[in-house]
């Protein structure tokens, strides 16, 4: 498990203080955790994985299915 001490966690404006998600960004990793459980677990993404995730959110579903 990665050491996440000292990261600058930012909370999503779309959730309340107990139910939202928080993200921390470093030069090489993106960390995602629940505001309700800041001690973990959390997800860790490379920058390429995070970019692919965001692209997937923005693109319409494949109609060929």
Tell me about this structure.
The model has no long low-confidence stretch (mean pLDDT 83). The chain has a 4-stranded antiparallel sheet. It is α+β, with helices and mostly antiparallel strands and 65 residues long. Strand 3 (29-34) and strand 4 (42-46) form a beta hairpin. It has one helix at 47-58, and strands at residues 10-11, 21-25, 29-34, 42-46. It has one domain (10-58). It is 18% helix and 28% strand.
In short, what is this structure?
The protein has one helix at 47-58, and strands spanning 10-11, 21-25, 29-34, 42-46. The chain has 65 residues and is α+β, with helices and mostly antiparallel strands.
Which descriptors apply to this entry?
four-stranded antiparallel sheet, 65 residues, alpha+beta
Low-pLDDT residue spans: none
Number of domains: 1
Distance between the amino and carboxyl termini: 36 Å
User: Can you list the strand order of the major beta sheet?
Assistant: 1-2-3-4
Q: Report the biggest beta sheet as strand number plus sense, adding barrel if it closes.
A: 4 strands, antiparallel
Rough outline = globular
What is the number of helices? 1
What Rg, in angstroms, do the CA atoms define? Answer: 14 Å
Strand fraction equals 25-35%
Number of beta strands: 4
Task: Find the structural class using helix and strand composition.
Answer: alpha+beta
SSE string, helices as H and strands as E = EEEEH
Estimate the helix proportion, in percent.
10-25%
Provide mean pLDDT, rounded: 83
